[in-house]
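Subject: design request, 405 residues
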């Protein structure tokens, strides 16, 4: 049954989740570009910035794991409100610190992720609430719309990353301009909290279960292991460090970077509904694999590109394909577990991904200082292709309900 034909209360719940995803995406869109520029402005080296990114991903992993295992026993709406409150606190705290130790602490406990996309404490909570409101036949399309909303909002937020340059031109100090962007991030956290407050209370579907994961444990752990390989590779080229690479390799300006990442997000956004349509024809696993491999090839070629124009073109082509697996992956995880396991499954598959990706930025920061600064891109592409082939081999016969006929 399509979302548009479902009861009004359910449609309202779904649209509130889409709106909240859009608000988070807009905030993330400028935060991931502002973060490395701000850290450079306060005197941190590329290696230190990589360590901060690692700290942020590690903290995000622990918070996501905690949320995933607490959520089956608590109200999802309350958990979402707590996550929004943490987002507000993060935006307020970042401008108050400049010493590396305090920056690491805020990055660890905060919500600013060095990479945009489906990661963070709020993601498994939103996934579980969305999956419980839609039918199997509409689940992948619902996740595609959710991802589309987030990506378009992220694209708009990327354009906002040029604001500090405009403020400096208007007479504001460089650091003060960055601080205003962090306060804007906090304000968007408040908007998200207001949206979450309108959601209904949502307890676990089987609150009496003794463990968050039951009959699907083996499948979830196997998926988590494979997703970890993919995320470790992605951690080598998180968006903040990709921006830093472009700044250093081609002397790209902050304003130009904001426009570039706007278009990467736009291309990513419109790949999501295509992914949902493709999944209906060739299946979720095939969609995840056969869109991912070409994107990794584009990334590897970009590492060797001698010109800015060609590099940006290759990265844009990568963006058109690289995230098509996101709605398919989210839908697949929700489909191959029981309803009672969905929140824990979303968390358990997300947390190892975040932990694995957290290892990448610090390593990438050191690799950026080598004579061949494109080495993180090559390693990322090669590892992602390995993951795709392993996923296809392991799960090509494990079908979601809508594909079993």
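Subject: RE: design request

Done. Sequence follows.
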């Amino acid at each position: 049954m399509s979302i548009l034909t479902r009861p009004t209360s359910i449609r309202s719940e779904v649209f509130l989740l889409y709106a909240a995803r859009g608000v988070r995406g807009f905030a993330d869109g400028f935060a991931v570009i502002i973060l490395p520029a701000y850290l450079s402005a306060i005197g941190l080296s590329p290696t230190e910035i990589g360590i901060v990114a690692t700290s942020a991903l590690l903290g995000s992993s622990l918070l996501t794991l905690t949320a995933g295992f607490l959520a089956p026993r608590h109200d999802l709406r309350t958990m979402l409100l707590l996550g929004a409150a943490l987002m507000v606190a993060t935006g307020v705290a970042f401008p108050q610190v400049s010493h590396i130790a305090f920056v690491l602490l805020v990055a660890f406990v905060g919500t600013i992720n060095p990479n945009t996309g489906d990661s963070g404490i709020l993601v498994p909570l939103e996934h579980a609430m969305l999956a419980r409101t839609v039918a199997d036949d509409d689940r992948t399309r619902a996740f595609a719309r959710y991802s589309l909303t987030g990506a378009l909002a992220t694209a708009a937020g990327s354009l906002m990353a040029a604001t500090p340059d405009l403020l400096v031109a208007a007479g504001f100090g460089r650091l003060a301009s960055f601080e205003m962007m962090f306060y804007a991030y906090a304000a968007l956290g408040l908007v998200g909290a207001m949206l979450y407050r309108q959601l209904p209370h949502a307890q676990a579907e089987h609150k009496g279960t003794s463990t968050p994961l039951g009959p699907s444990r083996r499948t979830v752990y196997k998926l988590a292991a494979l997703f970890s390989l993919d995320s470790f590779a992605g951690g080598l080229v998180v968006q903040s460090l990709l921006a830093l690479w472009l700044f250093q390799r081609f002397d790209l300006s902050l304003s130009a970077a904001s426009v570039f990442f706007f278009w990467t997000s736009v291309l990513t956004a419109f790949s999501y509904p295509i992914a949902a349509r493709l999944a209906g024809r060739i299946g979720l696993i095939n969609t995840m694999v056969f869109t991912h491999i070409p994107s990794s090839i584009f990334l590897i070629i970009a590492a060797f590109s001698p010109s800015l124009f060609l590099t940006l073109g290759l990265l844009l082509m990568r963006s058109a394909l690289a995230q098509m697996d996101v709605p398919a992956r989210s839908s697949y995880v929700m489909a191959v577990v029981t309803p009672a396991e969905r929140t824990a499954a979303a968390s358990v598959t997300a947390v190892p991904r975040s932990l694995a990706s957290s290892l990448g930025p610090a390593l990438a920061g050191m690799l950026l200082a080598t004579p061949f600064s494109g080495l993180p891109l090559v390693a990322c592409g090669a590892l992602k292709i390995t993951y795709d082939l392993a996923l296809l081999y392991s799960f090509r016969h494990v079908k979601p309900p809508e594909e079993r006929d």
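Residues 1-5, 206-211 have pLDDT under 50 and may be disordered.
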